[in-house]
Sequence to fold (348 residues):
Amino acid sequence: METRRIRRPSALPVILFLGAVVLAAAGIPPAPRERVIQGRVLDWETSRPVANATIRTLPPSRQTCTDSDGRYSTGGLAEGVGYTLLAGKKGYRVHHQDLPSHLRSLTCDFILYPDDRVKEPARCSERLRIDPTPPRSIRGLIVDWRTDLTVAGVRIRTTPPTESVLTDDMGAYFIGRNVQEGEYTISAEKEGFIMEKPEGYRFRIGPDSMIRCDMPMRSQLPPPVIEPAGGTFEGPVRVSIRSGVPDAEIVYTTDGTEPKKWDTYKYNGPFLVRKTTTIKALALKAPWADSLTAEAVIRIGETGAVNAPFVRSFGLEAGGRERIPLDIDAPCTIEVTAEWEGTARTLS
Fold:
């Protein structure tokens, strides 16, 4: 008699299914499965691999570096989350790509453009962020509109307030704390830069919103230098104005009003100030943002000024006269001392 062994089906799939049903009924979301991204980073000019380039994600997860062949592989990415992948290295422009949220594993290659202006080092060190991915977040890049380079150290703020953060060495930021549903305005601040949209960017955060908001900024010309920078002088003063940026145009006023691009004196060289004057100057050059206004107050012979006294001595015969020329543009006190027959008298 032939005996057959009956193979019983495994109970593991049933147990996993029932467990998922129980978690769903209790309102507990299942743990996200880890995703893996791999790829290669190449130089745009030479097509050679770029070693020690930093690979970073937004929202932050695992940071990794390319090997000697320009290859990388990073995990720790939650499934169902849309990430932005960043690649950068000192001497190269930062490059970024948005990744689809539905793929578990994918290949993402980068071509980096060499640029000697990139002085900020993208630190190449592996680390793992243990913070869980928040359900609502705001992320983005800050880019200089003039140079097309990302900007590090920019202060990012929101209204209503969430958390105040700085862009990293790749010009990226991420806000994941205290982000609630509702309307928000986001702005960026850094000395020497102004936002292309000064009023900020408005958007609405939903229950599971992950907002991407890149903000262009424009580097601002430094204020022009007025020489002398101000002070009190006995007589006319020659004033010059210069900018630290070659070929920048300078406009100025001498009546204390704010200089404008139009209907204002254009600086062509030094000029003479003969009376008390408030000078204001502005530097202009596209595609830079206009500079802040420089100001200098030049005071000429004003009362209360500590100036060396004008002294002139001379002798006169009886009935004689002496003419003394005076160049006076402001109220002052004149004292004349006359001495005769041993007696001195002062007239004011």
